[in-house]
Amino acid sequence: MQLRIGALAMVLAASLWGLLPQSSQPASDALLHALVSHEYDLDQDGYTFLVREAGSHGFFLLGELHGDNEIPALLHRLWPELWGLGYRHIAAEVSPWAARQLESVPPGQGPAISTLWRKSEAATVHAPAGPSDIVLWGCDMEEIQPHLVIRELAALNPGDARLQRMVSMIEQGYDRKSAPALLELLTASAATRDAQPNGISLRQNLLWTLSIERNRLSGETRMSAQNQRELLMKQQFLQHYEALSPGKVLLRFGRNHLHRGYDARGVSTLGNFVAEFAVAQGTTAFNVGTFGAGGQIRMDGELESADERQEEPAFAWLADHAKFRATLYDLRGLRSLLHAVPQGKRSALETNLVYWADAYDALICYKDVTPLAAHQ
Predict the structure, then answer these.
(1) Are strands 302-305 and 296-299 parallel, antiparallel or unpaired?
(2) For 327-374, what is each residue's pLDDT tens digit?
(3) What is the CATH number that goes with domain 24-86+247-376?
(4) What is the pTM of this model?
């Protein structure tokens, strides 16, 4: 009977162990020592670390949180230093049209736009450049306000009946459900006048936008839409790069876009593309991602939790050992230790750590993320 009770207790303990947060499962002493040895205060030695790495590479990839104050503050502090190190452009998760509005259109002129960037951030990165220089590269579809792009293209071609029909369809704003019909009209349009905001065809970017939006409507084509968008980002990045023959480039996109390899969804490969492109250019890339362990972000005007500890065991473990308000971890020191554990013997935590240590050179843990103001 005692043996049966003992066996039952072991089974129950094992079951409860599987229910524990993965961060509570102990890592090896060697792994923990390596982590502590590569942990920095972002406000102090971590900032010095980032500047040093930026100077050692030709491409610096910042996989950000969206809708917070921390990333704009970091960029405001970091960009003047990077400019001194030869960085001249920032490839961003905004459309070329939005990039032009942000950087080149004076405040109070042009339409009111909504993007992942604020005017003040664009002013910060443009400050060390000349008045007519383009610092900000738009490398994305127009995801938020495609109706404004439609109106601008239609205004260039007032005699095109199909474009005018598109304008009437978006009179009350844009609805994704209208994307198929809008795309059909734009494809059939015989419009001859185009614009090149931020150096990219207005019409072509709108075609890409509506095609991606159409494919987002169905579960059967949603993966195709994600792949289309990632391809567009790469193509526009190359267009900018080849046109301007730049020095060093910073990329600022959401964290899911800048992994080495594929992200967990199996579609995001922009970061991997840039890392390989860097090698082709005779240089290297360094990528740092950010995650929240508390606080809030503001997305589409709404407040959302920024706590990602329940989503990724690695984030929970890193947050457990974070000593600072913003803690930077150099993950490169963990890779060899993690890969020394046979794949079949890795815990769930170790498996997740392998994924993140291979995907990013460094991660920044923000303990308390603060949301952007509603109007800024």
Answers:
(1) antiparallel
(2) 999 999 999 999 999 999 999 999 999 999 999 999 999 999 999 998
(3) 3.40.1660.10
(4) 0.91
Residues 6+ apart with CB under 8 A from 247: 86, 87, 88, 89
Q: How confident is the model at residue 26 (pLDDT cuts 50, 70, 90)?
A: low
Residue 365 CB contacts under 8 Å (≥ 6 apart), including other chains = 291, 293, 315, 318, 319, 322, 326, 327, 328, 329
Amino acid identity at 31: L
Print the SS3 string covering 307-370.
Answer: CCCCCCHHHHHHHHCCCCCEEEEECHHHHHHHHCCCHHHCCHHHHHHHHHHHHCCEEEEECCEC
Contact present, 215 and 225 (Cβ < 8 Å): yes
